[in-house]
What does this fold into?
Amino acid sequence: MSMVQTPNDDTDDGAAMNGGRRPTVVAAPVSTSPELSARPRRRTFTAKDKLRILADIDRATGTGATGAILRREGLYSSTLSDWRRQRDAGAPSATPPTPSTSPSAPAPAAAVEAPSAPSPPPMPAEAAMSDADRREVQEALHRLGYYRGPVDGIFGPLTRAAIRRIQQDIGTKPTGSLTADEANRVVTSR
It folds into this structure.
């Protein structure tokens, strides 16, 4: 759509009628590029990528290191929670392929005896929690459906509200702060 403009003469009548401004010609919009797809495709990660990113996160130390990895990879912390859950459950989509042993080779002793899963270390009261402990509580609250915020180890208003809701549901006083017993119940709940 093109705009036709009549030529201006050099009189000031036109400028005075338009509040001191001359009319501006606006170019027609450019049509959309045929290179753009109608619907963007969601990124997918291979099991190898997931494990690499989780290993990077597990090795991350220092303030902001985890956030930097999340930004670099374009991920949300809730995605990491899902990937950790898959990895811990041994889901095929999150485990690397293992080399198969030949049928004649004896199975290793560790594979024959299936040891029971070690119980997680007890959680401290909230005041003594590390950042990793706080993230573990946030992941558990997320897994149980009480928390939808970022898993960042910071007990802000969203985490406090989630703690109060779970405290009500387990029959304790809804203070918004966790005792060691409550923290252990939250983390070990499935």
In short: Residues 126-188 form one domain. The first helix runs from residue 13 to 17.
